[in-house]
Design brief:
heterodimer; A: 266 residues; mainly alpha; B: 250 residues; alpha/beta; 3-stranded antiparallel sheet; 8 helices
Protein backbone atom coordinates (compact mmCIF):
# COMPACT_ATOMS: atom_id res chain seq x y z
CA UNK A 1 0.00 0.00 0.00
CA UNK A 2 0.97 3.64 0.25
CA UNK A 3 3.29 3.14 3.22
CA UNK A 4 5.44 0.68 1.25
CA UNK A 5 6.62 3.59 -0.87
CA UNK A 6 8.28 5.79 1.75
CA UNK A 7 9.05 8.83 -0.39
CA UNK A 8 5.52 9.26 -1.75
CA UNK A 9 3.11 10.73 0.75
CA UNK A 10 -0.58 10.33 -0.11
CA UNK A 11 -1.64 13.70 -1.48
CA UNK A 12 -4.82 15.46 -0.43
CA UNK A 13 -6.80 16.44 -3.55
CA UNK A 14 -6.29 20.16 -4.13
CA UNK A 15 -9.98 20.89 -4.36
CA UNK A 16 -10.57 19.56 -0.81
CA UNK A 17 -8.10 22.14 0.47
CA UNK A 18 -9.78 25.01 -1.38
CA UNK A 19 -13.21 23.80 -0.29
CA UNK A 20 -12.17 23.71 3.38
CA UNK A 21 -10.68 27.19 3.12
CA UNK A 22 -13.86 28.48 1.48
CA UNK A 23 -16.11 26.98 4.18
CA UNK A 24 -13.84 28.31 6.91
CA UNK A 25 -13.97 31.83 5.46
CA UNK A 26 -17.77 31.59 5.20
CA UNK A 27 -18.13 30.44 8.81
CA UNK A 28 -15.86 33.25 10.00
CA UNK A 29 -17.71 35.86 7.95
CA UNK A 30 -21.08 34.88 9.40
CA UNK A 31 -19.78 34.61 12.99
CA UNK A 32 -17.84 37.88 12.95
CA UNK A 33 -20.19 40.08 10.93
CA UNK A 34 -23.41 38.97 12.59
CA UNK A 35 -25.37 38.64 9.36
CA UNK A 36 -28.91 37.47 10.27
CA UNK A 37 -29.39 33.74 10.04
CA UNK A 38 -32.23 34.03 7.51
CA UNK A 39 -30.02 35.96 5.09
CA UNK A 40 -26.92 33.80 5.19
CA UNK A 41 -26.75 30.77 7.49
CA UNK A 42 -23.34 29.53 8.58
CA UNK A 43 -22.01 26.25 7.11
CA UNK A 44 -22.27 24.55 10.51
CA UNK A 45 -25.94 25.56 10.81
CA UNK A 46 -26.61 24.19 7.34
CA UNK A 47 -24.89 20.95 8.31
CA UNK A 48 -27.10 20.72 11.39
CA UNK A 49 -30.24 21.19 9.30
CA UNK A 50 -28.95 18.63 6.84
CA UNK A 51 -28.58 16.06 9.62
CA UNK A 52 -31.88 16.91 11.31
CA UNK A 53 -33.95 16.87 8.15
CA UNK A 54 -32.09 14.09 6.37
CA UNK A 55 -35.29 12.11 5.78
CA UNK A 56 -37.18 14.97 4.14
CA UNK A 57 -34.15 15.91 2.09
CA UNK A 58 -33.52 12.29 1.09
CA UNK A 59 -37.08 11.84 -0.12
CA UNK A 60 -37.09 15.00 -2.24
CA UNK A 61 -33.62 14.26 -3.56
CA UNK A 62 -34.77 10.82 -4.66
CA UNK A 63 -37.75 12.36 -6.50
CA UNK A 64 -35.58 14.87 -8.30
CA UNK A 65 -32.96 12.22 -9.07
CA UNK A 66 -35.62 10.06 -10.64
CA UNK A 67 -36.88 12.95 -12.79
CA UNK A 68 -33.35 13.80 -13.94
CA UNK A 69 -32.37 10.23 -14.73
CA UNK A 70 -35.66 9.44 -16.50
CA UNK A 71 -35.33 12.64 -18.53
CA UNK A 72 -31.69 11.97 -19.30
CA UNK A 73 -32.20 8.40 -20.45
CA UNK A 74 -35.29 9.15 -22.55
CA UNK A 75 -33.78 12.34 -23.95
CA UNK A 76 -30.58 10.54 -24.99
CA UNK A 77 -32.45 7.62 -26.53
CA UNK A 78 -34.81 9.96 -28.42
CA UNK A 79 -31.92 12.17 -29.48
CA UNK A 80 -29.82 9.27 -30.79
CA UNK A 81 -32.75 7.77 -32.68
CA UNK A 82 -33.56 11.18 -34.21
CA UNK A 83 -29.94 11.68 -35.26
CA UNK A 84 -29.84 8.25 -36.93
CA UNK A 85 -33.07 9.03 -38.82
CA UNK A 86 -31.81 12.47 -39.82
CA UNK A 87 -28.51 11.11 -41.07
CA UNK A 88 -30.19 8.37 -43.09
CA UNK A 89 -32.65 10.49 -45.02
CA UNK A 90 -31.85 13.64 -46.92
CA UNK A 91 -35.55 14.49 -47.25
CA UNK A 92 -36.12 14.24 -43.52
CA UNK A 93 -33.10 16.44 -42.99
CA UNK A 94 -34.45 19.09 -45.36
CA UNK A 95 -37.83 19.11 -43.64
CA UNK A 96 -36.88 18.82 -40.01
CA UNK A 97 -33.43 20.28 -39.47
CA UNK A 98 -34.42 23.96 -39.95
CA UNK A 99 -37.43 23.40 -37.72
CA UNK A 100 -35.24 21.94 -34.98
CA UNK A 101 -32.75 24.80 -35.17
CA UNK A 102 -35.51 27.41 -35.02
CA UNK A 103 -37.15 25.64 -32.07
CA UNK A 104 -33.89 26.06 -30.19
CA UNK A 105 -34.29 29.82 -30.14
CA UNK A 106 -37.31 29.29 -27.88
CA UNK A 107 -36.29 29.41 -24.19
CA UNK A 108 -37.36 26.10 -22.69
CA UNK A 109 -38.09 27.86 -19.38
CA UNK A 110 -40.89 29.77 -21.04
CA UNK A 111 -42.54 26.46 -21.83
CA UNK A 112 -42.49 25.22 -18.24
CA UNK A 113 -45.96 26.56 -17.26
CA UNK A 114 -47.39 25.05 -20.43
CA UNK A 115 -45.82 21.68 -19.69
CA UNK A 116 -47.30 21.75 -16.19
CA UNK A 117 -50.66 22.46 -17.76
CA UNK A 118 -50.32 19.55 -20.19
CA UNK A 119 -48.55 16.95 -18.08
CA UNK A 120 -49.75 17.86 -14.61
CA UNK A 121 -48.05 18.65 -11.32
CA UNK A 122 -46.44 15.22 -11.03
CA UNK A 123 -43.13 13.97 -12.31
CA UNK A 124 -44.30 13.82 -15.93
CA UNK A 125 -43.92 17.50 -16.68
CA UNK A 126 -40.43 17.58 -15.10
CA UNK A 127 -39.24 14.60 -17.08
CA UNK A 128 -40.56 16.20 -20.28
CA UNK A 129 -38.84 19.45 -19.33
CA UNK A 130 -35.53 17.63 -18.86
CA UNK A 131 -36.02 15.80 -22.17
CA UNK A 132 -36.69 19.07 -23.99
CA UNK A 133 -33.60 20.71 -22.60
CA UNK A 134 -31.21 17.85 -23.45
CA UNK A 135 -32.73 16.61 -26.69
CA UNK A 136 -31.07 19.08 -29.03
CA UNK A 137 -27.47 18.83 -27.77
CA UNK A 138 -27.67 15.04 -28.08
CA UNK A 139 -29.17 15.16 -31.59
CA UNK A 140 -26.66 17.73 -32.80
CA UNK A 141 -23.62 15.91 -31.42
CA UNK A 142 -24.72 12.47 -32.59
CA UNK A 143 -25.74 13.71 -36.03
CA UNK A 144 -22.39 15.41 -36.39
CA UNK A 145 -20.59 12.20 -35.44
CA UNK A 146 -22.64 10.07 -37.82
CA UNK A 147 -22.00 12.45 -40.69
CA UNK A 148 -18.25 12.22 -40.35
CA UNK A 149 -17.66 8.48 -40.51
CA UNK A 150 -14.43 7.91 -42.41
CA UNK A 151 -15.09 6.97 -46.04
CA UNK A 152 -12.28 4.42 -45.84
CA UNK A 153 -14.21 2.42 -43.25
CA UNK A 154 -17.47 2.69 -45.19
CA UNK A 155 -15.86 1.69 -48.51
CA UNK A 156 -14.21 -1.23 -46.85
CA UNK A 157 -17.45 -2.40 -45.28
CA UNK A 158 -19.23 -2.17 -48.60
CA UNK A 159 -16.62 -4.26 -50.40
CA UNK A 160 -17.08 -6.82 -47.60
CA UNK A 161 -20.80 -7.04 -48.42
CA UNK A 162 -21.94 -5.61 -45.09
CA UNK A 163 -25.63 -4.68 -44.91
CA UNK A 164 -26.60 -1.05 -44.23
CA UNK A 165 -27.90 -2.13 -40.82
CA UNK A 166 -24.60 -3.77 -39.91
CA UNK A 167 -22.71 -0.73 -41.14
CA UNK A 168 -24.84 1.49 -38.89
CA UNK A 169 -24.56 -0.71 -35.81
CA UNK A 170 -20.97 -1.88 -36.11
CA UNK A 171 -19.27 1.07 -37.78
CA UNK A 172 -21.17 4.33 -37.92
CA UNK A 173 -22.59 4.37 -34.38
CA UNK A 174 -19.36 3.32 -32.62
CA UNK A 175 -17.41 5.78 -34.79
CA UNK A 176 -19.86 8.53 -33.75
CA UNK A 177 -19.48 7.67 -30.08
CA UNK A 178 -16.81 10.27 -29.20
CA UNK A 179 -18.97 13.04 -30.61
CA UNK A 180 -22.11 11.54 -29.09
CA UNK A 181 -20.35 11.37 -25.73
CA UNK A 182 -19.73 15.11 -25.67
CA UNK A 183 -23.42 15.65 -26.36
CA UNK A 184 -24.34 13.30 -23.52
CA UNK A 185 -21.93 15.10 -21.17
CA UNK A 186 -23.60 18.42 -21.94
CA UNK A 187 -27.00 16.77 -21.48
CA UNK A 188 -25.97 15.40 -18.09
CA UNK A 189 -24.90 18.78 -16.86
CA UNK A 190 -28.08 20.58 -17.98
CA UNK A 191 -30.69 17.90 -17.17
CA UNK A 192 -30.90 18.96 -13.47
CA UNK A 193 -31.78 22.49 -14.61
CA UNK A 194 -34.75 21.16 -16.53
CA UNK A 195 -36.06 19.11 -13.62
CA UNK A 196 -35.62 21.86 -11.01
CA UNK A 197 -37.14 24.60 -13.17
CA UNK A 198 -40.07 22.27 -13.76
CA UNK A 199 -40.45 21.84 -10.01
CA UNK A 200 -40.35 25.58 -9.41
CA UNK A 201 -43.20 26.21 -11.78
CA UNK A 202 -45.53 23.77 -10.16
CA UNK A 203 -45.05 20.65 -8.08
CA UNK A 204 -45.68 19.06 -4.74
CA UNK A 205 -42.38 17.30 -4.28
CA UNK A 206 -38.73 17.36 -5.31
CA UNK A 207 -35.76 19.54 -4.35
CA UNK A 208 -37.04 22.51 -6.38
CA UNK A 209 -40.31 22.36 -4.50
CA UNK A 210 -38.52 22.07 -1.17
CA UNK A 211 -36.31 25.06 -1.94
CA UNK A 212 -39.29 27.17 -2.93
CA UNK A 213 -41.12 26.24 0.26
CA UNK A 214 -38.08 26.85 2.47
CA UNK A 215 -37.48 30.18 0.79
CA UNK A 216 -41.06 31.28 1.40
CA UNK A 217 -40.75 30.43 5.08
CA UNK A 218 -37.36 32.09 5.48
CA UNK A 219 -35.82 28.68 6.28
CA UNK A 220 -32.68 29.68 4.48
CA UNK A 221 -30.63 26.93 6.14
CA UNK A 222 -33.00 24.30 4.72
CA UNK A 223 -32.78 25.96 1.36
CA UNK A 224 -28.99 25.75 1.44
CA UNK A 225 -29.16 22.14 2.57
CA UNK A 226 -31.43 21.34 -0.40
CA UNK A 227 -29.03 23.18 -2.68
CA UNK A 228 -26.18 21.09 -1.32
CA UNK A 229 -28.15 17.90 -2.03
CA UNK A 230 -28.82 19.07 -5.59
CA UNK A 231 -25.16 19.90 -6.04
CA UNK A 232 -24.06 16.48 -4.80
CA UNK A 233 -26.68 14.76 -6.93
CA UNK A 234 -25.60 16.58 -10.10
CA UNK A 235 -21.94 15.97 -9.34
CA UNK A 236 -22.41 12.26 -8.68
CA UNK A 237 -24.51 11.86 -11.80
CA UNK A 238 -21.97 13.65 -13.95
CA UNK A 239 -19.09 11.62 -12.52
CA UNK A 240 -20.98 8.39 -13.10
CA UNK A 241 -21.92 9.24 -16.69
CA UNK A 242 -18.40 10.47 -17.36
CA UNK A 243 -16.92 7.20 -16.08
CA UNK A 244 -19.31 5.14 -18.19
CA UNK A 245 -18.51 7.15 -21.31
CA UNK A 246 -14.78 6.92 -20.67
CA UNK A 247 -15.12 3.18 -20.32
CA UNK A 248 -17.06 2.95 -23.59
CA UNK A 249 -14.39 5.08 -25.25
CA UNK A 250 -11.47 3.00 -23.97
CA UNK A 251 -10.06 3.02 -27.49
CA UNK A 252 -9.57 6.76 -27.75
CA UNK A 253 -5.87 7.57 -27.34
CA UNK A 254 -6.59 10.27 -24.71
CA UNK A 255 -9.93 9.16 -23.30
CA UNK A 256 -9.05 10.10 -19.73
CA UNK A 257 -8.13 13.67 -20.62
CA UNK A 258 -11.66 14.38 -21.84
CA UNK A 259 -12.96 14.01 -18.31
CA UNK A 260 -13.52 17.41 -16.82
CA UNK A 261 -13.89 16.34 -13.21
CA UNK A 262 -10.90 14.28 -12.28
CA UNK A 263 -10.46 14.75 -8.61
CA UNK A 264 -8.65 11.54 -7.81
CA UNK A 265 -5.02 12.63 -7.88
CA UNK A 266 -2.64 9.70 -7.93
CA UNK B 1 -6.72 -21.34 -54.57
CA UNK B 2 -8.08 -21.64 -58.09
CA UNK B 3 -6.56 -19.57 -60.84
CA UNK B 4 -7.59 -15.97 -60.15
CA UNK B 5 -9.61 -14.37 -62.95
CA UNK B 6 -8.49 -11.33 -64.89
CA UNK B 7 -10.52 -8.14 -65.20
CA UNK B 8 -12.00 -6.58 -68.32
CA UNK B 9 -13.11 -2.98 -68.45
CA UNK B 10 -15.38 -2.47 -71.41
CA UNK B 11 -15.86 1.09 -72.67
CA UNK B 12 -16.17 2.64 -69.24
CA UNK B 13 -17.16 6.30 -69.07
CA UNK B 14 -17.30 8.44 -65.98
CA UNK B 15 -18.18 12.08 -65.52
CA UNK B 16 -17.76 13.76 -62.16
CA UNK B 17 -19.60 17.07 -62.08
CA UNK B 18 -18.76 18.64 -65.46
CA UNK B 19 -15.39 16.94 -65.70
CA UNK B 20 -15.19 13.94 -68.00
CA UNK B 21 -12.78 11.58 -66.26
CA UNK B 22 -12.94 8.57 -68.56
CA UNK B 23 -14.48 8.16 -71.97
CA UNK B 24 -14.89 4.66 -73.42
CA UNK B 25 -11.94 3.38 -71.46
CA UNK B 26 -11.14 -0.27 -72.16
CA UNK B 27 -8.53 -2.23 -70.31
CA UNK B 28 -7.67 -5.86 -69.80
CA UNK B 29 -5.90 -6.93 -66.66
CA UNK B 30 -4.47 -10.42 -67.16
CA UNK B 31 -5.13 -13.01 -64.53
CA UNK B 32 -2.72 -13.72 -61.69
CA UNK B 33 -0.45 -10.77 -62.37
CA UNK B 34 0.50 -7.64 -60.51
CA UNK B 35 -0.76 -4.55 -62.35
CA UNK B 36 0.00 -0.98 -61.42
CA UNK B 37 -1.98 2.03 -62.51
CA UNK B 38 0.34 4.98 -62.46
CA UNK B 39 -0.53 8.63 -62.81
CA UNK B 40 -0.39 12.02 -61.22
CA UNK B 41 -2.63 12.97 -58.32
CA UNK B 42 -6.17 13.86 -59.31
CA UNK B 43 -6.00 12.14 -62.69
CA UNK B 44 -8.66 9.55 -61.89
CA UNK B 45 -6.67 6.60 -60.56
CA UNK B 46 -8.78 6.18 -57.46
CA UNK B 47 -11.98 6.61 -59.49
CA UNK B 48 -10.85 3.77 -61.74
CA UNK B 49 -10.22 1.56 -58.73
CA UNK B 50 -13.53 2.48 -57.13
CA UNK B 51 -15.36 1.61 -60.35
CA UNK B 52 -13.73 -1.83 -60.42
CA UNK B 53 -14.52 -2.29 -56.71
CA UNK B 54 -18.16 -1.48 -57.36
CA UNK B 55 -18.00 1.56 -55.05
CA UNK B 56 -18.56 4.01 -57.89
CA UNK B 57 -21.06 3.40 -60.68
CA UNK B 58 -19.74 4.33 -64.13
CA UNK B 59 -22.03 6.32 -66.39
CA UNK B 60 -21.50 3.78 -69.12
CA UNK B 61 -19.69 0.49 -69.63
CA UNK B 62 -19.09 -2.55 -67.49
CA UNK B 63 -16.41 -4.18 -65.41
CA UNK B 64 -16.38 -7.95 -65.55
CA UNK B 65 -14.02 -10.79 -64.84
CA UNK B 66 -12.63 -13.00 -67.63
CA UNK B 67 -15.37 -15.45 -66.75
CA UNK B 68 -18.04 -12.82 -67.29
CA UNK B 69 -19.08 -12.23 -63.68
CA UNK B 70 -19.32 -8.75 -62.14
CA UNK B 71 -15.83 -7.99 -60.85
CA UNK B 72 -17.04 -6.51 -57.56
CA UNK B 73 -17.97 -9.96 -56.22
CA UNK B 74 -14.34 -11.10 -56.43
CA UNK B 75 -12.47 -8.19 -54.97
CA UNK B 76 -10.81 -7.28 -51.69
CA UNK B 77 -9.99 -3.62 -51.19
CA UNK B 78 -7.08 -1.96 -49.45
CA UNK B 79 -6.81 1.81 -49.32
CA UNK B 80 -4.32 4.50 -48.31
CA UNK B 81 -6.29 4.98 -45.12
CA UNK B 82 -5.94 1.61 -43.42
CA UNK B 83 -9.57 1.82 -42.29
CA UNK B 84 -8.85 -0.03 -39.05
CA UNK B 85 -11.66 0.30 -36.54
CA UNK B 86 -10.01 1.96 -33.53
CA UNK B 87 -12.19 0.08 -31.03
CA UNK B 88 -11.15 -3.36 -32.29
CA UNK B 89 -7.83 -5.09 -31.60
CA UNK B 90 -5.50 -6.10 -34.43
CA UNK B 91 -6.92 -9.62 -34.36
CA UNK B 92 -10.51 -8.38 -34.38
CA UNK B 93 -9.75 -5.96 -37.21
CA UNK B 94 -8.34 -8.78 -39.31
CA UNK B 95 -11.63 -10.58 -38.79
CA UNK B 96 -13.66 -7.56 -39.89
CA UNK B 97 -15.11 -9.28 -42.96
CA UNK B 98 -16.56 -12.30 -41.11
CA UNK B 99 -17.64 -9.95 -38.31
CA UNK B 100 -19.60 -7.67 -40.65
CA UNK B 101 -21.18 -10.58 -42.48
CA UNK B 102 -22.27 -12.12 -39.19
CA UNK B 103 -20.27 -15.30 -39.77
CA UNK B 104 -19.10 -17.58 -37.00
CA UNK B 105 -15.79 -16.06 -35.87
CA UNK B 106 -14.55 -19.37 -34.45
CA UNK B 107 -14.19 -20.70 -37.98
CA UNK B 108 -11.52 -18.20 -38.96
CA UNK B 109 -9.64 -18.02 -35.63
CA UNK B 110 -6.86 -20.40 -36.66
CA UNK B 111 -6.45 -18.64 -39.98
CA UNK B 112 -6.21 -15.26 -38.27
CA UNK B 113 -3.43 -16.53 -36.00
CA UNK B 114 -1.58 -17.82 -39.04
CA UNK B 115 -1.98 -14.50 -40.84
CA UNK B 116 -0.77 -12.61 -37.76
CA UNK B 117 2.30 -14.80 -37.86
CA UNK B 118 2.87 -14.19 -41.57
CA UNK B 119 2.69 -10.39 -41.24
CA UNK B 120 4.84 -10.58 -38.10
CA UNK B 121 2.29 -9.18 -35.68
CA UNK B 122 1.69 -12.12 -33.33
CA UNK B 123 2.93 -10.19 -30.26
CA UNK B 124 0.57 -7.35 -31.19
CA UNK B 125 -2.53 -9.47 -31.76
CA UNK B 126 -4.48 -7.90 -28.92
CA UNK B 127 -3.22 -4.34 -29.33
CA UNK B 128 -5.51 -1.52 -30.36
CA UNK B 129 -4.67 0.35 -33.59
CA UNK B 130 -3.83 3.50 -31.61
CA UNK B 131 -0.63 1.93 -30.27
CA UNK B 132 0.53 0.52 -33.61
CA UNK B 133 2.87 2.32 -36.01
CA UNK B 134 1.79 3.21 -39.55
CA UNK B 135 3.62 0.21 -40.98
CA UNK B 136 2.09 -2.17 -38.45
CA UNK B 137 -1.36 -0.80 -39.15
CA UNK B 138 -0.96 -1.45 -42.87
CA UNK B 139 0.24 -4.97 -42.07
CA UNK B 140 -3.00 -5.51 -40.14
CA UNK B 141 -4.88 -4.15 -43.17
CA UNK B 142 -2.93 -6.56 -45.40
CA UNK B 143 -3.83 -9.53 -43.19
CA UNK B 144 -7.47 -8.39 -43.19
CA UNK B 145 -7.36 -8.26 -47.00
CA UNK B 146 -5.86 -11.74 -47.18
CA UNK B 147 -8.49 -13.23 -44.87
CA UNK B 148 -11.14 -12.22 -47.39
CA UNK B 149 -9.65 -14.82 -49.77
CA UNK B 150 -10.71 -12.93 -52.85
CA UNK B 151 -9.05 -13.59 -56.20
CA UNK B 152 -8.65 -9.94 -57.03
CA UNK B 153 -6.97 -7.45 -54.72
CA UNK B 154 -7.36 -3.73 -55.33
CA UNK B 155 -4.91 -1.42 -53.61
CA UNK B 156 -5.25 2.35 -53.50
CA UNK B 157 -1.84 3.76 -52.58
CA UNK B 158 -1.64 1.63 -49.44
CA UNK B 159 2.05 2.35 -48.93
CA UNK B 160 2.12 6.07 -49.63
CA UNK B 161 2.08 7.22 -46.00
CA UNK B 162 4.96 5.04 -44.91
CA UNK B 163 8.62 5.93 -44.65
CA UNK B 164 10.89 4.63 -47.44
CA UNK B 165 12.32 1.62 -45.60
CA UNK B 166 9.01 0.47 -44.11
CA UNK B 167 7.41 0.95 -47.52
CA UNK B 168 10.04 -1.24 -49.17
CA UNK B 169 9.54 -4.00 -46.59
CA UNK B 170 5.79 -3.89 -46.84
CA UNK B 171 5.87 -3.92 -50.64
CA UNK B 172 7.96 -7.11 -50.63
CA UNK B 173 5.74 -8.71 -47.99
CA UNK B 174 2.61 -7.82 -49.94
CA UNK B 175 4.06 -9.15 -53.16
CA UNK B 176 4.92 -12.49 -51.53
CA UNK B 177 1.58 -12.90 -49.81
CA UNK B 178 -0.47 -11.90 -52.86
CA UNK B 179 1.31 -14.14 -55.37
CA UNK B 180 -1.20 -15.91 -57.61
CA UNK B 181 -3.89 -13.29 -57.27
CA UNK B 182 -4.76 -10.59 -59.73
CA UNK B 183 -3.53 -7.41 -58.10
CA UNK B 184 -4.26 -3.87 -59.17
CA UNK B 185 -2.19 -1.26 -57.38
CA UNK B 186 -2.95 2.40 -57.86
CA UNK B 187 0.02 4.63 -57.17
CA UNK B 188 1.58 7.97 -58.02
CA UNK B 189 5.04 6.61 -57.34
CA UNK B 190 6.77 5.34 -60.53
CA UNK B 191 9.44 3.64 -58.46
CA UNK B 192 6.87 1.58 -56.59
CA UNK B 193 5.08 0.64 -59.82
CA UNK B 194 8.33 -0.38 -61.51
CA UNK B 195 9.43 -2.45 -58.52
CA UNK B 196 6.31 -4.54 -58.19
CA UNK B 197 4.46 -4.79 -61.48
CA UNK B 198 4.25 -7.35 -64.22
CA UNK B 199 2.33 -4.78 -66.25
CA UNK B 200 2.32 -1.01 -65.93
CA UNK B 201 -0.70 1.06 -66.95
CA UNK B 202 0.07 4.73 -67.16
CA UNK B 203 -2.67 7.35 -67.17
CA UNK B 204 -1.98 10.15 -69.56
CA UNK B 205 -2.81 13.71 -68.50
CA UNK B 206 -5.74 15.20 -70.41
CA UNK B 207 -9.48 15.14 -70.40
CA UNK B 208 -10.75 12.51 -70.78
CA UNK B 209 -7.84 10.47 -69.48
CA UNK B 210 -6.20 7.91 -71.77
CA UNK B 211 -4.32 4.86 -70.60
CA UNK B 212 -1.25 3.13 -72.00
CA UNK B 213 -0.16 -0.33 -70.92
CA UNK B 214 3.41 -1.52 -70.78
CA UNK B 215 4.43 -5.04 -69.80
CA UNK B 216 7.77 -5.28 -68.04
CA UNK B 217 10.30 -7.82 -69.20
CA UNK B 218 11.98 -9.06 -66.03
CA UNK B 219 10.33 -10.98 -63.17
CA UNK B 220 8.86 -8.93 -60.31
CA UNK B 221 9.54 -7.84 -57.65
CA UNK B 222 12.70 -6.01 -58.60
CA UNK B 223 15.25 -4.56 -56.19
CA UNK B 224 15.42 -0.75 -56.22
CA UNK B 225 18.68 -0.75 -58.20
CA UNK B 226 17.42 -3.19 -60.84
CA UNK B 227 18.49 -2.43 -64.43
CA UNK B 228 14.97 -2.35 -65.84
CA UNK B 229 13.90 0.20 -63.25
CA UNK B 230 16.88 2.39 -64.02
CA UNK B 231 16.21 2.08 -67.75
CA UNK B 232 12.46 2.78 -67.66
CA UNK B 233 12.19 5.37 -64.92
CA UNK B 234 13.06 8.46 -67.02
CA UNK B 235 10.58 7.67 -69.80
CA UNK B 236 7.77 6.70 -67.42
CA UNK B 237 8.44 9.93 -65.58
CA UNK B 238 8.28 11.92 -68.80
CA UNK B 239 5.04 10.24 -69.84
CA UNK B 240 3.33 10.93 -66.51
CA UNK B 241 4.35 14.54 -66.88
CA UNK B 242 3.36 15.31 -70.43
CA UNK B 243 2.10 12.15 -72.12
CA UNK B 244 4.43 11.11 -74.94
CA UNK B 245 4.66 7.54 -76.27
CA UNK B 246 5.87 4.89 -73.93
CA UNK B 247 8.92 2.91 -74.98
CA UNK B 248 8.17 -0.46 -76.58
CA UNK B 249 9.43 -3.36 -74.54
CA UNK B 250 11.35 -6.00 -76.49
Amino acid sequence: MASSIPHRRPRVPAFLVSLTLFLLAWQLLVTLSGIPHFLLPAPLAILKTLVNQIQTLGLHTAITAFEIIAGLVSGCVLGIISAVLLSSSRRLRRWLLPLMVISQSLPVFALAPLLTLWFGYGMGSKVVMAILIIYFPVVAATFDGLRHTSTAMLDLARTMNASPRTILLQIRLPAALPSMASGIRVATSVAPIGAVVGEWVGSSQGLGYLMLQANGRMQTDLMFAALLCLCLLAFLLYTLVNRLLDRALFWLPDSSSTATFHTDAH
Amino acid sequence: MNQAPGIKLDKVSLTLGKHSVFQDLSLHLQAGQWHSVLGRSGIGKSSLLRIIAGLQKPDKGAVRTDTGEPASTHIAYMAQDDGLLPWLTARQNIQLGPRLRGENLQESTAQVSELLERVGLTPWADALPAVLSGGMRQRVALARTLLEERDIVLMDEPFSRLDAITRDELQSLSFDLLTGRTVLLVTHDPMEALRLSHVLHVLEPGSPTRIQSMPLATPAPRPVDHDEITAQLPSVWQFMKSGSDLPVVV
